[in-house]
Every structure is written in C-alpha cells, then in structure tokens.
Amino acid sequence: MNFSNETPSSVLRPQALEVSSDATPNTTAPNNNNNNGSRCVSQLTIAIVMWFLILMLVFVIAWVVINPHSPTLRLNSLSISNITLSNSQFVANYEAAFVVYNVNKKVNFCVDELKVRVLYGKAVVSEDEECSERQTPVCVRKMSDEEMKPELGRDSVHSVKPRVFKDISDDWSKKLVNFNVKISLRVRYEYGIWPSKETRLEFSCMNLPVQFMSTKGTGKLMSGGKFCGV
Q1: How many Å apart are CA 208 and CA 224, to the nearest integer?
Q2: Burial of 183 (0-12, 13-18, 19+ CB in 10 A)
Q3: Which of 9, 27, 83, 153 could form a disulfide with 92 if both were Cys (CB 3.0 to 4.6 A apart)?
Q4: Residue 151, class by beta-carbon neighbours within 10 Å (0-12 exposed, 13-18 middle, 19+ buried)?
Q5: Chain centroid to CA 141: how far?
Q6: What's the CA gap between 211 and 133, in Å, rounded?
Q7: Which residues of the chain have a pLDDT value below 70?
Q8: Where are stretches of biased composition, namely Polar residues (predicted)?
Q9: Left, alpha or beta for 121 (phi > 0: left; psi -120 to 50: alpha)?
Q10: DSSP H or E run through 135
C-alpha cells in the first residue's frame, strides 16, 4: 500500500486559505446601493426644479399675452377741515373720494393696499399708511368701477420747512390753497384659473384748488374732480 508523502500541514493549508477567503466581508453591494439612492434623489430634485421653472415660465408668458390694462383713477372730491397751523405743521382732517375703474374686458382685479399722501408743492403735509387696514381689499370686476373714501386724521400730519409753512399759511389766509394728492395702490389681477399677478401703481392728482369759505370752515375741491395720472 502506497502512502502519500504529504504532511498534514501541507494538506490543511489550502483549506485554511479557502476559509480565510470566505471570511472576508463583502462591502461592495451596500456602497453601490447608497450611490444609487443618492443618484435617484439628485435626479428627482433636478426634475422637480425643472418642472417648477417651466411652470413659472408658462405663467409669465400667459400674463404677457393677457396683458392687463392698469386701472384708471378719478379723484371726485377732497375736503379739509378742523385746521390748525402751528410748529411748522398744517394740521387738519382730510377726506378724499375717488373712483377706481377697471377697463379690462376679461380681467378682474383687487386693491390690496392703499396709501394716500397730501402734498403742498413737493412737501408732504399729511400721510396715512393705515388706510389699507380700513379700506382694502376692494375688488373691481371687469368693465366696472368702485369708489374708495380714505380719511387722513390730524395724527397723520408732517412737519414742513419754515419757508413752505409760510407759503401755505399765506395761501390759507387767502382762502385758496393748491394741493397735490398721491395715491399708491397694490393691485392683484385675476384671470380664470391662472395664478394672480401683483403690481404697484402710484397715481398723481396734481394742482387741486381747495377753497375755504372762512379760516375756520371746511375747504372743498373747486374743480369738481380730476383724473389722476400714473
């Protein structure tokens, strides 16, 4: 009988190597899964951003095509009462009434913000930023109009320069003062299912002669109303 000349250690060596090879952990598969997951998240994010940008571009183009006209504004009346002149201030109560016209045939709009300033020349004598809380929102349907009546109280007064104060005091003593009124609006256009579009407009109502019956009486607009420019 022939016996092999291999020693036990030489016989066991391949098995030991084989066991060692099988025991090595396989980390390739989890790393690949993580990379694939990150790639999917990145691609999904890019797709969402691109879809949003395309949608916004469609909305912008749609409003360019719709091209809504700006409102038209007419100041119908302006009255000034309870007047006091002191400390470079023309203190008074102001009441205005104006009509906002929607000349669009297909587009409605809402006035969401209103700001009124009364000026003598270029100097602001009264300004009220809280008109919006009392007057808005006012929605105007297509081819229609709405009246707004903002009021500016005595606490809305502004101080003016001494030269301006002297000029307005002289005019008031003559019972005729020319004022300017600036009306700022934030307008929100609405058309069907499309998202609304907002814009800000400032109307200037210039050279408004206000006549006072007496230095203690109420002054009223003489011209009977005027359209205001944008």
Answers
A1: 10
A2: buried
A3: 83
A4: middle
A5: 20
A6: 30
A7: 1-37, 132-133
A8: 1-12
A9: left
A10: helix 131-135
Any idea which residue has 């390739």 for tokens? 28
What the block records as the tokens of 3 is: 């016996």
CA distances from 211 to 80, 83, 172, 184, 190 (A): 9, 13, 9, 25, 41
Instruction: State the amino acid at position 177 in one-letter form.
Output: V
What is the rounded CA–CA span in Å between residue 22 and residue 156?
A: 87
Q: Which two tokens stand for residue 50?
A: 């691109």
Q: What are 93-115's pLDDT values in tens digits?
A: 999 999 999 999 999 999 999 99
Q: What are 145-174's pLDDT values in tens digits?
A: 999 999 999 999 999 999 999 999 999 999
Mean pLDDT (the chain) is: 85
